[in-house]
Design goal:
single chain; about 150 residues; 4-stranded antiparallel sheet; 3-stranded antiparallel sheet; 1 helix
């Protein structure tokens, strides 16, 4: 079952689509007038030309593309990036170059993927104590390395 999502595409690129029947995410492309060269450890904000009306109780998560990460050292910051249902601005992607060499993004390059996710809302219940679990407050590697 799919959920209809209104989209405006101001780019000249095709709409994002699922590459295979089993894909969770859709690749999104850079929409830029000139190539962007990203220096090592530099961050850039890359426009896509896409605007969406995300249905209520949904979000879009922006995630890195594994091929771009392993081959060029480019990944997304703020991952997964959340696009809320009430946002109507252009979808832009924060990229960082983690390689030791400059990397260049060209118009139409697939720069990230987006995943639609259902969102549940929480209601706070103020209490004085929490229930006990075997783990308790253990965190940050408390179970050891192996």
């Amino acid at each position: 079952m799919s959920t209809p999502v209104q989209i405006v595409n101001n780019s000249h690129h095709p709409l994002p689509s699922y590459a295979t029947a089993g894909s969770s995410g859709m690749d999104i492309r850079a929409f830029i007038a000139n190539p962007i060269t990203i220096q090592p450890m530099e961050r850039v904000l890359v426009p896509t030309g896409l605007f969406m009306s995300i249905p209520e109780n949904w979000e879009v998560q922006i995630r890195p593309r594994s091929g771009l990460a392993i081959k060029q050292g480019i990944t997304c910051l703020n991952t997964p990036g959340t696009i809320d249902a009430d946002y109507r601005g252009e979808i832009k992607v924060i990229l960082i170059n983690l390689s030791n060499e400059h990397q260049t993004i060209h118009d139409g390059d697939r720069i990230a993927q987006m995943v639609f996710q259902k969102v549940e809302k929480a209601n706070w219940e103020l209490v004085q104590n929490l229930d006990h679990t075997e783990r308790g407050a253990g965190g940050f590697g408390h179970t050891g390395k192996q």
